Amino acid sequence: KLQVRIISAQNLMAADVNGKSDPYVKIKSDCINLKATRVIQKNLNPVWDETLIIEIENPAKDCLIFEVYDEDLIGDDDFLGYTSVDLSLLPFGTSVTTIEKLSYAKHGTIEIELKALDFGVTNIPLSYIPTYCTWRKDIKGITRKNFKEIKKSAKNSKKDSGPYYGKITYSLDYKFYYGYIKRRRTKGEVAGDIGKKTLKVVG
Fold first, then answer.
1. Which domain of life is it from (predicted)?
2. How many Cα neighbours within 13 Å face the side chain of 21?
3. What is the enclosing helix (H) or strand (E) of 3?
């Protein structure tokens, strides 16, 4: 079991014409796909402070993905970015609060607190949690364009370079890619890109 506290987000992208977003958070893994927070209207720095407990089937191999969306009353909700956490590195029975940079976003971070209730690293030194939090904070958000550079670097060095080395499980919406987690494009996003190209040709 894992206790998840979704605290807040900062400097999210504005998805609506009013210069704001109506953000909420989803949680995904191999066995989880749920809306984890309420929607906060017209806010780029939302504070949710919501806690839930979820079952984790394979913490040694699984990663937990946090997706931020902007709720739209008409059409699909807008994607504002994601981050993922390697559950095998969490300390047992201790709350860890981190600030995570969002990938596939021009800017934005999310603050979360995780506590492994029946799994996790034991007999850790005093420096483990501060070092872990600093490491998480320093992980950069990834864009689609970055993956070309990541692939080239991994082939040159002949090893994965990302923070999720050795993971083998993934959500249907994501895949592991040279040590990073890469989001698959949804059918709606593909259709939207085709529509934009069609408009350019017509124009």
1. Eukaryota
2. 23
3. strand 2-10
Domains of the chain by residue range: 2-202
Is the CB of residue 179 less than 8 Å from the CB of residue 84?
A: no
Q: Is 15 left (phi over 0), alpha (psi -120 to 50) or beta?
A: alpha
Tokens of 191: 């259709």
- Return left, alpha or beta for 108; rule: phi > 0 is left, psi -120 to 50 is alpha, else beta: left
Under DSSP, the state recorded for 121 is B
Q: Name beta bridge partners: 112.
A: 6, 98
pLDDT by residue, tens only, the chain of 203 residues? 999 999 999 999 999 888 899 999 999 887 788 888 999 999 999 999 999 999 988 888 888 999 999 998 888 899 999 999 999 999 999 999 999 999 999 999 999 999 999 999 999 999 999 999 999 998 888 887 787 777 777 666 656 566 666 665 555 677 777 777 878 776 666 555 544 444 444 45
Distance CA 54, CA 49 (A): 16
To which CATH superfamily is domain 2-202 assigned? C2 domain (2.60.40.150)
Retrieve residue 69's tokens. Answer: 């969306």
